[in-house]
Design a protein that fits this description.
The complex is a heterodimer. Chain A is mostly helical. By secondary structure, chain B is an alpha+beta fold. In chain B, α9 packs antiparallel against α11, α10 packs across α12 and α14 packs antiparallel against α15. The longest helix of chain B is centred in the N-terminal third of the chain and has 35 residues. Chain B is globular, with a radius of gyration of 25 Å. Chain B starts with a helix and ends with a strand. The chains are: A mainly alpha, B alpha+beta. The interface between A and B is medium-sized, with 28 and 33 residues.
């Protein structure tokens, strides 16, 4: 893994900077935007972007920049939880399938095949229907929908690693299977999964935003990127910034994490 | 790689430029239209097709199936009723029945039908057909809309006394039945339709109306054609004969911005449910805005947790009324067509009483009431009593686009007097569960009906979803059911409204209002007494 730009270009550096800013917004929103994201000011409604209101104001006169910054903590945390759910469950399944082989492998991978055959957003929607709306349910639903891809990658890596000489040596040396799995196979199979995690993080932001856009996420007046775009959609004619700026924020964050995923590719 | 990464910003710029161009294009269209269409005072011209974009699919053309706006818009064109309600004053006037009598205790209703009415399939309208309609309603109660079933409470029998006279008897007082017969839900269907199983009536309804159903394709369009020989429109209509329009086509366009765009690009001639933020632009663009406050209970917060703290205290409920500024809500999230609420009922409801002074916006009074009830301001501004925060959960459905912004603003207004309002946007099933388990404190709601009997939604009679319990109010609500004389009933309705406001069983905010927009070439489009689209017999199109 390396974080330096490969084959030239400044995109990865910009990506890192953007994601750092987004992470900062998520962790300490008050630092970037000290205002209250829910403070209404009807006299100042639907103002276009200006130095006072970088992203303009919404239909109740709330500062959109403040809402986007505060929304970062909800959107990014949800995406992080989704990625973690997908990664942990997917890796565990892949590890199990690749290491145990035989009927366990067949059984697990057929389930994974079935999951892969369902479009992930549709799967998330079905899970939301079962779990009920709410931002954490959205995160879990998005995470579960990405389990299959992680399991696939992990299994193929485990299959490659377990044929290595050092694994055979560990077996021959009398190590217990759990030790071989956790100390020898797992650490050597994580590279591609880490790259996938960065990719999945980008996809998770998009999926979480999509589900929030459809109204399954936060309760008003909490800001979340997808729900900000959904509200702004009604004002496309009068106030383009309401949908465009939160939308661009989502797009740039997803783009940045995809660029980063390409840079950390082993 | 480097080429690609440099090309990307250029793509972004191109996309932004394109967006700007498209937006500019929209603006130009609107201003062009403004100058082109002078006000037309010519006389009605027959012919043409009126296209109307609806927000939701009507789901059925059967008048007994649904009572929401889009469904009524369509079915009203095909189906006539026994009596008609004049939108000007809410009075009931002859339609299919040329006269009627109501017994003083409101248990017997006798209708004398016109003798020249035929259905569009040629069968004549007789007392037998009217009786068959009500027999069919009773037999199919399980599949008829519950709102319509409730209007028939206590229905015993329909009796044919002669070829054009039919008598309805009730086992309990039902003074509101007369107005109910003016709604499409109790409209009169042809024997051919009654012969069909209920499920097959969705797209196959024959009535006596000025238009005839041609086709209904779910989620796409409903097409209606003119009924030739129609001659029995209610007296308040300018054209009591056959309609001017050849055809009406209702299309379904769910996205509000797309609906406005469809009107501006001449793809349709009229749109329903105009989003508040587009009203000004459409009016400036030369489009006509057709609006009318919905009769019935205004949009407001219903205290549904009165069995427990803190809303068991009438002063806390009254404080909420004084803490909310309906005018600011209107000015911020709605359009000028909407009016702040001035009582339980909206101004277009028969029997409406102006109680605006009792619920006037006055945050100081609100604070005094809350102080008096023992709720003192806590550290973060939210009031507390015995270590408990004054926090209320308000549940709402996503069935009206202004619900969420209105409630967000109301939450901010309540926060000013130290009440924390938590919003819960819910699906209908969750909403009902919240009511049943009393986990919801306030319900955001409005009910449309042009009859004072709608006040019975504040009664504690089963199913009593709102857990109300006011014996004095219940007695008044029962009494008004048994009075056939409209004048005496109106007095009772006034007393009921005062009692509801006095007990703060609703925190009124604004009057729900139907807002439609039409192209300047559309004339005579009007809303009925229920503020739904009326029969379009008067409508004509200029060049």
């Amino acid at each position: 893994m390396r974080l330096v730009p490969r084959r030239g270009g400044s995109a990865p550096v910009i990506s890192v900077l953007w994601l750092t800013a987004a992470a900062a917004a998520a962790l300490t929103p008050g630092l970037l935007a000290p205002g209250d994201p829910s403070a209404v000011e009807p006299a100042n409604r639907l103002r276009p972007p200006s130095w006072q209101h970088l992203f303009g104001t919404d239909e109740l006169g709330r500062d959109l920049f403040t809402r986007v910054v505060h929304g970062a903590s909800i959107s990014l945390t949800a995406a992080l939880v989704a990625t973690a759910v997908g990664l942990v469950l997917g890796s565990a399944l892949g590890l199990l399938a690749g290491f145990a082989r035989g009927w366990t492998d067949t059984g697990v991978m057929r389930v994974v095949d079935v999951l892969l055959s369902i479009p992930s957003l549709l799967l998330s929607l079905a899970l939301i229907a079962a779990l009920g709306p709410g931002v954490w349910n959205v995160a879990v639903a998005v995470g579960l929908a990405s389990v299959a891809a992680c399991a696939r990658i992990m299994r193929s890596e485990v299959l490659r690693v377990r044929e290595s000489l050092f694994v055979e040596a560990a077996h021959a040396g009398g190590a217990r299977w759990s030790r071989v799995l956790l100390r020898h196979v797992l650490p050597n199979a994580t590279g591609p999964v880490a790259a996938l995690a960065a990719l999945e993080f980008g996809a998770a932001i998009l999926a979480v935003s999509a589900l929030s856009f459809l109204g399954y996420g936060v309760q008003p007046p909490d800001p979340e990127w997808g729900s900000l775009v959904a509200t702004g959609r009604d004002f496309l004619r009068e106030a383009w910034w309401l949908a465009l700026l939160p939308g661009c924020t989502v797009a740039l964050t997803v783009l940045a994490s995809n660029r980063l995923a390409r840079a950390v590719r082993p | 790689m480097s080429i690609r990464s440099r090309r990307f910003p250029r793509l972004l710029v191109a996309a932004a430029a394109l967006t700007a161009l498209v937006l500019a294009g929209c603006g130009d269209d609107a201003s062009d239209d403004a100058g082109s269409e002078p006000a037309d005072v010519a006389s009605p011209r027959p012919g043409g097709t009126l296209t109307v974009a609806l927000q939701t699919d009507p789901l059925s053309v059967d008048p007994r199936a649904y009572t929401f706006g889009a469904a009524v818009y369509v079915t009203r064109q095909v189906v006539d009723s026994l009596v008609a309600q004049d939108p000007a004053d809410g009075s009931l006037v002859p339609w299919l029945a040329e006269s009627w009598q109501v017994s003083p205790d409101a248990t017997t209703f006798t209708f004398h039908l016109r003798d020249d009415v035929t259905f569009s399939d040629g069968t004549p309208l007789t007392a037998e057909v009217v009786k068959a309609n009500f027999d069919d309603l009773t037999a199919n109660q399980a599949t008829v809309n519950p709102v319509i079933v409730s209007q028939l409470a206590g229905f015993e029998a329909a009796t044919v006394t002669d070829e054009h006279t039919v008598e309805f008897t009730f086992t309990e007082h039902n003074a509101a039945f007369l107005q109910a017969t003016s709604e499409p839900g109790l409209g009169i269907l042809a024997p051919a339709t009654l012969a069909l199983p209920v499920q097959e009536r969705t797209a196959d309804v024959v009535g006596t109306g000025p238009f005839v159903l041609e086709s209904y394709e779910k989620d796409a369009e409903v097409s209606l054609g003119r009924r030739d020989g129609y001659a029995w429109a209610p007296p308040f209509r300018e054209n009591t004969g056959a309609a001017y329009l050849d055809q009406i086509v209702f299309t379904v366009v769910p996205e509000s911005a797309v609906r406005s765009g469809s009107l501006e690009s001449d793809q349709v001639l009229a749109i329903a449910d105009v989003p508040a933020q587009d009203v000004a632009a459409l009016r400036d663009g030369g489009y006509a805005i057709v609006d009318r406050p919905n009769p019935g209970v205004v949009y407001g917060l219903l205290p549904v947790s009165t069995p427990r703290q803190p809303l068991d205290d009438v002063d806390v409920r009254r404080a909420l009324s004084h803490a909310i500024d309906g005018t600011l809500v209107r000015d911020t999230v709605l359009s000028p067509e909407f009016a702040p609420a001035t009582g339980v009922l909206s101004t277009t409801t028969p029997g409406y009483v102006d109680l605006g002074d009792e619920i006037a916006f006055d945050p100081d009074t609100a604070r005094e009431l809350l102080d008096g009830a023992g709720w003192r301001e806590g550290a973060d501004g939210t009031r507390e009593r015995d270590g408990q925060r004054l926090r209320l959960v308000a549940a709402f459905l996503d069935d009206f686009s202004a619900n969420q912004p209105a409630l967000e603003l109301i939450a901010a207004q309540l926060a000013d007097v130290g009440v924390e309002l938590e919003l819960a946007k819910q699906a209908p099933a969750d909403l009902l569960a919240g009511l049943e388990n009393v986990t919801t404190d306030l319900l955001w709601n409005s009910v449309t009906r042009a009859e004072g009997d709608i006040l019975r939604s504040f009664s504690s009679a089963p199913p009593n979803y709102y857990h109300y319990d006011d014996p004095e109010l219940d007695a008044l609500l029962t009494e008004q059911r048994g009075i056939g004389d409209p004048g005496r009933r109106a007095d009772l309705h006034a007393e009921i409204q005062r009692r509801i406001i006095d007990q703060a069983l609703i925190v009124p905010v604004f009057e729900q209002t139907a807002v439609l927009a039409t192209s300047a070439s559309v004339h005579g489009l009007a809303l009925g007494a229920n503020s739904r689209l009326d029969q379009l017999g008067d409508v004509w199109l200029s060049e």
